[in-house]
Amino acid sequence: MKFSRRNFIGASLTATASAALMSSKASALTLFQNQNFAVGQFRGAVPIMQGLATKSTSQFVILTDAAIKYGYAAIDSKGGPYSLAITRRESRTFSKFAIEKILVTGLKTNTDYTLQVIDPNTGKPIDERLFKSLDTDLKNPKLMIASCMKDNKEEEREVMWDNVAEAKPDVVFLIGDTCYSDNGNDGSDAGYWRRYCETRSLLSHFRQKRLIPTLAVWDDHDFADNNADGTFAKKEMTKDLFKIFWDNEPQEGAITKGPGVAQLFNAFGQRFFMMDSRFYRSPRGSSNPVQWGEQQEDFLFENISKGAKPSWLMNGSQFFGGYLQKDAFEYWHSENLKSICQRLARIEAPVVFASGDVHFSEYMKIEPEILGYTTYEITSSSIHSTTIAGLHLRKKNPRRIDASSTHQFAIVQTDVNKTGDWTIAAQSFKMGLIKTLEHTATITR
Questions:
Q1: For the whole prediction, is pTM greater than 0.90?
Q2: Tens digit of pLDDT for each residue in 301-342?
Q3: CB-based contact 189:240 (threshold 8 Å)
Q4: What angle do CA 173, 65, 54 make, to 5 degrees?
Q5: In what order do the strands lie in the sheet containing 84-91?
Q6: Angstrom distances, CA of residue 318 to CA of 233, 291, 347, 423
């Protein structure tokens, strides 16, 4: 099954095509509404992301026509309205597109709501999506983990997100390369903005009928370009850009912001440290190179030392992928990783690692010599970027439980029992929700 959205939107988002459309009295939103979607598949008119959700709040990021001030409403199944505020609007003089951020409050858990985008001229909805708040005390939540979201594969960028929707995760974690901002980009501010807008428009995750709370951190391609590090000249600009498209305001103690684009998400009796692997990264060849930098390490240890809640360390680059002799924390910053692990070994909280980047998925068992107990790394890559059959077979990995090279994402169900034992049940799925990997483990500190 093929879809024509890439060809249409890719051309339409250029200055020339946009000018032509505007001269014919078509709005930028027409680019969204007139796209050709799969028969039988719902696709919303406007790209909408549900960001951080808590028990009583939800945040949304909406890609809109910069020339039009749309209205918004959040209603329940009986049409009752809920408090809604536009918290931020960002546009650029060189673009027909804008970002609007919305906060909805007063919600209840386990209740369906509808977010409406309203035409300011007719007063009628042009798009409607279902959403829920998030029960942050949920036991055994279902987490989706993915990375590497190149937008040039038409079928994959549609169907893989349909499969994610079918899997019904409670939260989506995107850990790097949420946009290949360096592809088809002349390196200008306008080029990065355009690429972020294109990817937000093209991925069907943002057009599903039911929205899912989504949190993200970047890696090299949404930060700058391939294998970029902290010397990137435009990193302040791209940090602001990433935050425009992905950032959330703290609500109910669920989010703590860190240095760069790092953040800590507290939910489900667990902690999720989403680490910035690029902004502070030392260039190759540096003496005593680091990946996260002192500020970020301070952020991690200041927070992880507050109690024994199980903690995920999520990172764009693999942690223990040194066997590949490229890209991994263990390879380029081995002494830095060793130091971090020595400090983690003294912390009461158990840790599991999650990563992306390598364009194949891999489950690893990390020996107790590293942290003082057996733990695991789940690498989930890529959901629809380039991959090659057998890519994972290039090198032998003594820590490997299993691996697979195809477009896929991970679903992890995770729970902490009364005695403190932490269970993770991980499965990876390729197109068609066909299982590629599976492993269940209990982490005992």
A1: yes
A2: 999 999 999 999 999 999 999 899 888 999 999 999 999 999
A3: no
A4: 30
A5: 48-53, 57-65, 97-105, 84-91
A6: 25, 11, 22, 22
**Beta carbons of 223 and 234 less than 8 angstroms apart:** no
The token pair at 294 is 């002192």
Q: Are 310 and 350 in contact (CB under 8 A)?
A: yes
Residue 400 has phi, psi (to 5 degrees) of -70, 130
Q: Which residues contact 158 (CB under 8 A, 6 or more apart)?
A: 1, 3, 5, 38, 41, 204
Cα separation, 408 vs 102, in Å, equals: 31
What's the mean pLDDT when you consider all of the chain? 91
Structural domains in the chain, CATH included, are 142-443 (3.60.21.70)
CA 255 to chain centre: 15
pLDDT mean over 9-31: 36
**What is the distance between the alpha carbons of residues 169 and 164, in angstroms, rounded to a whole number?**
7
- Using CA atoms, how far apart are residues 202 and 152, in angstroms rounded to an integer? 9
Distances (CA, A) of 420 to 310, 314, 365, 443, 445: 9, 21, 20, 9, 8
Number of neighbouring beta carbons within 10 Å of residue 138: 16
End-to-end Cα separation, the chain, in angstroms: 48
Compute CA distances 359 → 150, 191, 222, 266, 401, whole Å: 11, 25, 16, 28, 17
- Alpha carbon distance 209, 89 (integer Å): 24
pLDDT score of 391: 84
Average pLDDT over residues 145-164: 95
